[in-house]
Amino acid sequence: MFWIWSDVQRLHHFLRLISVFPSEMERITCMSLLLTAVVSSSAGAPRQYHFVNQTLNWTEAQRYCREHHTDLVTISDIQEQNDIEQSIKSSSDPVWIGLKSTDTWIWSLGDPAFYTEHESQFRNWGSKQPNGDGDCVYMDCVNYLKGQCYYRLYIIDIMWICSSLSLLRVVPNL
To answer: Which intervals hold domain C-type lectin (predicted)?
Structure first.
């Protein structure tokens, strides 16, 4: 038996549950160790990329990624961008990534535990971008654009890339 958290919100729910049973010190100790491990090991966690050769709008693509993987892909630096480009080199079409605008540009997997400050700020905007034409971001990997980011309205259907984070597994010793 093991536990995997791909969403830190689930961890917070579990912590609230544990607080209801304060006499169970073993579990509280286990959770404090888990919390420390999640924070220390999740920034820069290894990611797998999953190119989906179907078309959906950004919101539907995000839902698919969250149901089948972790989330839409996030890009933390130029090396990761190059890795993503390699994973979709068979496609010349743009793909949704997990960058969106609310009032500022944020990654859809927005929990700060998954990024260093520098990683959460990585953007490789294309020429004259962002320009006010949308609220969700796609990456275009055609040779002359080399993975630059552009944004569009979320309602347009294009392909997308999911990522799966390799997170901490806790095996209880019962």
So the answer is: 49-156
